Amino acid sequence: MRVWRRLAAGEHGGTGGFKLVFAGRPGWMTDDIMASLSEEMIFRRDVIHVASPSDVELDTLYANAAFTVYPSHYEGFGLIESFAHGKPAITSSAGALPEAAAGLAPCIDPIDEDGWVAEIGRWISDPAHAAEKSRRIRAEFSWPSWSDAATRILMIAREP
């Protein structure tokens, strides 16, 4: 939210008319965020919260997204989901996210607010950059089948 507030104030070229979309139910430690969404004019204007999107709604959100951001400290399935939809992402360097990103997304320390402002600002102001990232994801990312995933897990478990 602090990053979006800074972009909306004009840093790194501003928001360029982009909307920030949060998809998912409020969860642990989100009370302050949810309050800001309804209290601050900038968030009421520029941020959309879709609390419980259906699969069809989620597919529509991904189809219309320019890119995704995952500044997470722990969670990361959305990154893989973004790639599966052919969408480029900016993600956190925390936990297993750099491994999951597999070189297909820039990984930024989740507390490096300046880094997030700069990178998101770059992607907003240079649509060709995000488009190139999207082309690379469609060319290089593959969602493993359940059988492939199970085989990999068993191989790792059998290693000495």
Describe the structure.
The protein has 160 residues and is mainly alpha-helical. The chain has a single domain (2-158), classed as Glycogen Phosphorylase B (Rossmann fold, 3-Layer(aba) Sandwich). Helices cover 53% and strands 11% of the residues. It contains 9 helices and 5 strands. It has helices at residues 2-8, 31-39, 41-46, 55-64, 77-84, 97-101, 113-125, 127-140, 146-158; strands at 20-23, 47-50, 68-70, 89-92, 107-108. The strands form 2 sheets. The protein has a 3-stranded parallel β-sheet with strand order 3-4-5, with helices on both faces. A two-stranded parallel ribbon has the order 1-2. Strand 3 (68-70), helix 5 (77-84) and strand 4 form a beta-alpha-beta unit. Helix 1 (2-8) crosses helix 7 (113-125) and helix 7 packs across helix 8. The longest helix is centred in the C-terminal third of the chain and has 14 residues, at 127-140. It is globular. The N and C termini lie far apart (45 Å). The mean pLDDT is 91.
